């Protein structure tokens, strides 16, 4: 501004001009000085915005990871949907990636643990595992001190970096085999010998494995029952609280679904080791919250007393697997199929298996044996299961149904598996066909 005033005074002293002309000159000079300044400032602001927009250039450590020989790790990063969060992290600060070698993820990793990580419901565990290998600071191993140091990872856990007398460096018990394998301005990648598993992910896997270890095994050498007294011929030894009952589940059921509803177990009963009523209430509530199984819940609670009977069976120590048809399948039932006395109960009984089965246990069984016949609460009918299209198919022919929604509810005593059709015993269908054929011949 001082320079501008000096120029104006010199101009007025040299040229005798009027005040109006002087104002025009001032406006012209202001445009010449201020407009370039504004243009330069706007360009700098745009440059800063582009710098902090989170875009990653071709020289980024993330691009180097995707193009490196750590292919197994890069594939897991893409499957875990972590590219965008890592791009944001790289835009803020440099990072250090401890990349396990491909053999650690292909051959050395427990196959069951790898299946657990790749299941859609365990995406959070997979993300936590991968972020446990990334530190939000740049760590140059050739400049690291010999003493051990703690570093916080992006998974909110810590890893310990130690150096041995031999010169080898370890990150949480995993040896660093390729230090500074990839070096970029925004990060560095160190190759390590094996996978780093945080304690939270290991705990989630252990909990899931403990639940899966509860497998339904067909009982062998079942105790004999005296048909006259309906009691065991030989007294069985006292069982521990919580163990499975000696008698089959059919002997604990009510005499008839529509004639004598099963009473709820009284408090302090001889076998009341489990709160079956609460567990049945929880799984019916889960059906309602899950959506698409309102008709099944309505039949169990309102149209029949099966919810109460199932609660009593679970309280007595029995386990159940419910094949629940969805609302679309239940809507296909006709009035004739539901109008007969006891028809709703008989339909549901054919969908209840007196075993504890999960989607994985049933699929493994049909993969191994081809076809499996499961007992149902509707004696003497059994439901057939076989593998089809990578899933489990129940029933025969046109009356079959696929496992549609696996593991809707699993608590170790009751397992609920959603299917897309209502099942009927094949003997019942063939009997009806023979009756119709005989009637047509008599006419």
Automatic annotation (TrEMBL):
Family statement drawn from the similarity comment of this UniProt entry: Belongs to the fasciclin-like AGP family.
Cellular localisation: Secreted
Entry keyword Repeat: yes
A Pfam family of this chain: Fasciclin
Gene3D superfamilies for the chain: FAS1 domain (2.30.180.10)
Keywords: Glycoprotein, Proteoglycan, Repeat, Secreted, Signal
GO CC annotation, single: extracellular region
UniProt-listed SMART domains: FAS1
Residue numbers spanned by region Disordered: 146-165, 210-246
PANTHER family: FASCICLIN-LIKE ARABINOGALACTAN PROTEIN 16, FASCICLIN-LIKE ARABINOGALACTAN PROTEIN 17
Coiled coil: none
Chief location: secreted
Domain FAS1: 57-196, 280-408
Name this protein carries in UniProt: FAS1 domain-containing protein
Polar residues biased stretches: 146-161
Keyword Secreted: yes
Superkingdom: Eukaryota
Role this protein plays: May be a cell surface adhesion protein.
């Amino acid at each position: 501004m001082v320079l501008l005033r000096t120029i104006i005074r010199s101009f007025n002293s040299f040229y005798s001009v009027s005040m109006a002309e002087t104002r025009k000159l001032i406006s012209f000079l202001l445009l010449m000085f201020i407009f370039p300044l504004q243009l330069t400032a706007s360009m700098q602001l745009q440059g800063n915005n582009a710098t902090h927009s989170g875009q990653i250039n071709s020289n980024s450590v993330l691009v180097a990871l995707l193009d490196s020989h750590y292919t197994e790790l890069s594939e897991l990063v893409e499957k875990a949907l972590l590219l965008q969060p890592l791009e944001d992290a790289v835009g803020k600060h440099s990072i250090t990636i401890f990349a396990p070698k491909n053999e650690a993820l292909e051959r050395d990793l427990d196959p069951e643990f790898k299946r657990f990580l790749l299941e859609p419901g365990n995406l959070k565990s997979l993300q936590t595992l991968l972020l446990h290998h990334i530190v939000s600071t740049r760590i140059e191993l050739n400049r690291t001190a010999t003493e051990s140091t703690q570093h916080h990872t992006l998974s909110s856990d810590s890893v310990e970096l130690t150096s041995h007398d031999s010169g080898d460096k370890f990150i949480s018990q995993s040896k660093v085999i390729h230090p500074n394998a990839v070096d970029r301005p925004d990060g560095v990648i160190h190759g390590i010998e094996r996978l780093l598993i945080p304690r939270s992910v290991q705990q989630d896997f252990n909990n899931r494995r403990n639940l899966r270890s509860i497998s339904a095994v067909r009982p062998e050498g079942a105790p004999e029952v005296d048909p006259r007294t309906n009691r065991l011929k030989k007294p069985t030894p006292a069982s521990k609280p919580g163990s499975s009952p000696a008698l089959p589940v059919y002997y604990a059921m009510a005499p008839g679904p529509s004639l004598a509803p099963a009473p709820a177990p009284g408090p302090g009963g001889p076998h009341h080791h489990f709160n079956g009523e609460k567990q049945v209430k929880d799984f019916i509530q889960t059906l309602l919250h899950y959506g698409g199984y309102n008709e099944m819940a309505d039949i169990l609670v309102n149209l029949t007393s099966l919810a109460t009977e199932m609660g009593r069976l679970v309280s007595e120590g029995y386990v159940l697997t419910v094949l629940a048809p969805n609302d679309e399948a239940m809507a296909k039932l006709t009035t004739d199929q539901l109008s007969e006395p006891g028809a709703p109960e008989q339909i549901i009984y054919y969908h209840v298996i007196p075993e504890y089965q999960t989607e994985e246990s049933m699929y493994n069984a049909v993969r191994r044996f081809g076809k499996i016949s499961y007992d149902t609460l509707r004696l003497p009918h059994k439901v057939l299961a076989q593998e089809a299209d990578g899933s489990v198919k129940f029933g025969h022919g046109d009356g079959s149904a696929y496992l549609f929604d696996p593991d809707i509810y699993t608590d170790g005593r009751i397992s609920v598996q959603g299917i897309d059709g209502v099942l009927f015993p094949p003997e019942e269908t063939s009997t009806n066909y023979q009756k119709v054929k005989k009637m047509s011949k008599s006419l």
